[in-house]
Design a protein that fits this description.
By secondary structure, the chain is α+β, with helices and mostly antiparallel strands. The protein is built from 4 helices and 5 strands; from the N terminus they run αβββββααα. Bound molecules: zinc ion.
């Protein structure tokens, strides 16, 4: 498992809901958390590791010692956003070296299923609310730079261009499969849990 970078096509893929939870899925979530900590992130969506599932992991402290702050959410649905828009500088593990000011609602109410298979409701504000919005966007195929203001888009452009050049070169050297092969891989992965 490794974190894919922009513009890998799975980052714009709309993930499918998970229909089955088993030890394999629990192992995937645990591995995602470890990768997230190694990369010094606070959240990671399954499509960022090449898996087309509505699954995300997060820990607002980013600290592997604080396991009580860890969350694994399956099929999250944001039901309400409120509290007004707040600006905050975000980063993303699929966009190394890019930090952008993004405006998001301060509070969210959402439902999600835990690894125990039980649905639960949450009302969050501040950093946790921001992380869940950023990661849920990923599951819908949306990345943070797409929410940046025009000035942020301008700031992002050179970084996006250099990431795109790196990705093209990786693909030419065969490190990333072509679109048809990727689509077949995704269909195969979906058969397992969706
Ligand atoms: Zn991200």
């Amino acid at each position: 498992m490794k974190i894919v970078r922009y513009p890998h096509p799975i980052l714009s893929y709309k993930s499918k809901p998970v229909r089955r939870i088993d030890q394999g899925l629990r192992d995937i979530a645990a591995e995602m958390l470890e990768l997230m900590y190694q990369a010094q992130g606070v959240g990671l969506a399954a499509n960022q590791v090449g898996l087309p599932y509505q699954l995300l992991v997060m820990n607002p402290t980013g600290d592997p010692e604080q396991r009580e702050e860890e969350y694994v959410f399956i099929n999250p649905v944001i039901q309400k956003r409120g509290g007004g828009l707040t600006d905050f500088e975000e980063g993303c593990l699929s966009f190394p070296d890019l930090r952008l000011m993004i405006a998001r609602p301060e509070t969210v109410a959402f439902q999600a299923i835990g690894l125990d298979g039980r649905p639960a409701s949450y009302s969050w504000k501040g950093l946790k609310a921001r992380i869940i919005q950023h990661e849920t966007d990923h599951l819908h195929g949306q990345c943070f730079y797409q929410r940046a203001k025009f000035s942020g888009e301008l700031q992002a452009r050179p970084v996006l261009e250099s990431l795109a050049a790196e990705f093209d070169s990786d693909r030419r050297r065969g490190f990333v499969p072509g679109d048809a092969e990727l689509a077949a891989e995704i269909a195969e992965l979906e058969k397992k849990y969706c």
